[in-house]
């Protein structure tokens, strides 16, 4: 068996068998199952009990339309006309016979007014619903008094017709855009999480091997370059396992709950019906992005001599990916901003931002090619520098002082 | 399979760690590297293994450069012990063995044999961090030899071991040599080198101070040690011509003398002075040679 595969499978299996990996995967899966069944779970908790609300209608004409309006939009509330005095009604609310009490009156102008009494007024949901109904009622009464026809009124309140049409033939239609936004968002998030979690893992693994000094034995039997990439791909495979597992479970859950969810979260992400080329771009940019950050992480990991120092040295890399993510989040709304365009050529940002632009805008092929070229070039340069730092760094022990160590490691791997 | 180092120099920036080192390590022999701390032993080993690039000069093994495609023929025990602390001995050795071109079953058979030889068969399913330092050292040693290397490099193999374990490991090393492995090893402990090696090399600050067959070195060193045990005062021997060093012992004294002839004069001088229990002329020990050669360059 090739040594690359020996290291790759060792890296994979060692991580796969750890408790922390098992637990984090299981917790994530439980979360996914919970999230995909959110509606069902919420409904089972809500139950079908309705809240009874006592109404004392002093005007004599507001109760019926209010009850009708409210109960048609909200099936969790029931308005009940109360025959007793206001004081009795308040006592009844205190005794929890009713959820709340509303007194309805007409003011001097003949417009409805209301007071709401409840044990606490912390729960705003019911108040707002009643207030809205009452507002509509008030508008109806007021317009009637002013002599405005109800049909006219409906016309006034109807939403304006507004169509956004792109004149450029190749520009994305609104529908395409919202689909693309979903995929872009998903990919950005996935890359962000992947780099954070698995980049950390790579650096940690390298640092462990270095601090336990097993590294010297390893690099005496396998070249540092082979070792570095075997590690990067081993962890990538691990990440893939986890992601496939999570997406698989999520997909299965969504398929089961399809009817309930369509029109909800699912259509926002618009997974169905997006163009296949966008998927290919997503995969290409994702892999290159991972490779860039993973190489960087392996290099940083090889510089420390104690595991505790990993965090500290990883900070700058973390800042880069967080910055990329923030720019991308901003760019989702203004994909054609000039600094988004510029960032899409900077290798640390390009996996996220060029993909965002490809998804949201109509980017000429040469621009994508240029960005990819810069990205691949950077990865190659990093791999070369990384391998040298790796070779020198793994033989270097002592206090970590990032920049000085970097130079020292480069020097150690040189001929003189 | 002779290992040849020709004018090997290693510089780290301004600092020269190894300066024009030339050696020939014959096949099926044990070659001892001696030197104080920072003498350049580990750097030399790392260059032989290809972990460090050589600044100048050339290292060849059987006429070829050593590269990763020969790693299954080479065994290495680094000075700083390195094993995965959280990994079980079995998994550890399977991984390292595979990287040296072995199959899983080969590793398992060999490993059981070695653990039994070292009288620790119960450690096979223990994590390395649970073992004592000496026992970790045994595992480390097994990891260096499990693939039956043709060239074995041992950097301070006996440090941190009790005398019984030192003997156990020494025997293993001698067996390997007899089975045809060329062994290069370094130590601070002169007696180990004296006992095991035919050829030695003393390094000091990157320079080769002494090199050659142990017997030759001792013979050409010239100076001898003379031990005298007697009931009479021996102070006067200090002033005898040809005596370089005088050291009083409880039962007599130990002298370092310029050459064999001096002992004759001393023997004559002692005649009739009283009862002499012991008069022993010895070859100089490696320790004496080391102190003389390395100590001299300190001055």
How would you describe this structure to a colleague?
The complex is a heterodimer of chains A (416) and B (299). Helices cover 69% and strands 6% of the residues of chain A. The mean pLDDT of chain A is 80. With 416 residues, chain A is an alpha/beta fold. A four-stranded mixed sheet of chain A has the order 2-1-3-4, sandwiched between helices. Chain A folds into two domains: 49-157, D-Maltodextrin-Binding Protein, domain 2 (3-Layer(aba) Sandwich), CATH 3.40.190.10; 174-412, no CATH class. In chain A, helix 8 packs antiparallel against helix 16 (350-360). Chain B has 299 residues and is α/β, with parallel strands linked by helices. Chain B folds into two domains: 3-217, Rossmann fold, CATH 3.40.50.300; 223-283, Alpha-Beta Plaits (2-Layer Sandwich). In chain B, the strands form three sheets. Chain B has a six-stranded mixed sheet, with helices on both faces. In chain B, strands 11-12-10-13 form a four-stranded antiparallel sheet, with helices on one face. Chain B is globular and about 75 Å long. Helix content of chain B is 34%, strand content 29%. In chain B, strand 6, helix 5 and strand 7 (182-187) form a beta-alpha-beta unit. The longest helix of chain B is centred in the middle third of the chain and has 16 residues, at 163-178. Chain B is built from nine helices and 13 strands.
Task: Describe this protein with a few key phrases.
heterodimer; A: 416 residues; alpha/beta; D-Maltodextrin-Binding Protein, domain 2; 2 domains; 18 helices; 4 strands; B: 299 residues; Rossmann fold; Alpha-Beta Plaits; 6-stranded mixed β-sheet; 4-stranded antiparallel β-sheet; 9 helices
